[in-house]
Design brief:
The protein is mainly alpha-helical. The protein has helices at residues 2-38, 40-55, 62-73, 75-104, 108-116, 121-150, 152-155, 170-179, 183-215, 231-242, 245-257, 265-300, 303-347, 349-364, 367-386, 390-401, 404-416, 420-428, 433-444, 446-467, 485-494, 498-530, 533-539, and strands at 157-160, 163-166, 469-474, 477-480. The longest helix is centred in the middle third of the chain and has 45 residues, at 303-347.
Amino acid sequence: MDAIILIILAVLATAGRVIGLILLSILTGWFLAYASIKSKFFENIYIILIEVFESVPVITFFPVVLVIFITRVGGPLGVELAADFLVFTAVVWNIWMGEYQAFKTVPREMVEVVENSRFGLFSRLRYLYIPFSVPRITANLFPSVSDGFFYIPVSEVFEVGVHTYQTFGIGSVLDTFVASAQLFNIEMALLILGIVIVAIVIVLREFSKYAVGRYTLDTDAPVMKRGRLNLRETARVFAALSKNPLTRLARYYKYREGDKHEQTYEKKEKKQKRYKYIYASIGIIILIALLYGVVSLIISVKPSEWSILFNKTPFLLTGLGFDYVRVGSILLVSMVIAIFLGYYLAVNKRAEKYWIPIIQSLSAYPAPIYFPFLFILTEPFMLSLFGGFTNELYVLSLGFVSTFYYVFYSFWMGVKAMPSEYWEITKNLKLGYFKKMRKVIIPSTFPYLISGISSTINSAWGGLMIGEYWPNIYGTHSLSVHTGLMKTIDIATANGDLTLAAWGSLIFGIIVAIYSVLFTRKMMDLAQKKYVAEEGVYSA
């Protein structure tokens, strides 16, 4: 009984840690996203940082965790802050990216309303940007919860060199049970964890319905025939219109229109420039801090060590090339599943009712906990079938389960959030499945897709980080690939070679920064110019 109580408390502590850090991510993301759309300079730095840190797996933050929290803070508080930081880095980036992309694609007509109404910062956030971002946040809540639980085993219990650190939670409790071979307690822990995950999934599913119904920009008010007044239908019309964000803004604008103290154009321009300077200054401070950290790192490394690191750079780049092939394969499979299954579930309520909780439960269940059991059960069969390629398939599978849900949930929520007028067009024109996808569905969900694709690519590295080098995954069995940058960083971290691990992470971060400028930023600019589905409602 004492073990059961311990398991329940540990699961609740872990769930509270994950949910609390997700809420913190949402709150901070609103202000950062607003600052990014107001300053191009801040936006460039912000997007690059998100892309880099989302791509860099949680495990590579261990050197930072060791220095900042374990060494300088120390004690139980330092370990708890370290665990919270590691979980935070697992759940925050896709939420911040989703909020930024939502703010970036707010229809211009709605932005003009809040600007002409002279809204302040908090009023703009309250009446426009936050409501418009809720569906995008909802789409990212599912993968964030999944990621939070996925990385619990390596966040609540982590090793750097010969030292092991842990804080209270289901990850540390399970680690204790596994070390002492308490099979019954392991099964009970997995069962109770599954029950809590299912409960969270049900709550998220109900919230997603509420978010889509209340905060999606739509004009699905019933159309009435001309004739005598029908009070029932009139009530339905006003009920539908009252939920429209633009209608609420219009009411506020009407109230403010009578304000005698109108602001001149020159004052508005001056105020906007002042805000741009503030946001640019924040961006410069962040850039200076990063450059200071880089310079400090360079100075602290001896010339002889730099020679060793430069000699190893071609090997690291080769490993990175192999890893990008793996990430591309994972993305391709994830995209196919997202587009076909995501669309099917979005338009079939009955199937959605059962399959979304199942998919969410499976994706939120920490793969590092159950994957060793699957490995030992299937390894003989897989070896007989695929031979030397077996380990690659295991690593790709681990990478897939760690990231496929990003693009899946983004596309699924994007389809659900499509304005009803677009569905009417597809019905009236009697478009076939593939033509409807090409002409309407994919263009309408393009901002959601870019968000999901970006997070899928960036988060696949976490699964690769765990799978490419997993010694003693089960008993004497190990999982390892021949070549990969994540494997090299894993081995360097396990051996306490933090210099090589940091150098590999730096090279990786530079490549990701280039990718963020060439791909993510350009795709979001394209989505803002051509693929904001809500603007089509106004154009019509």
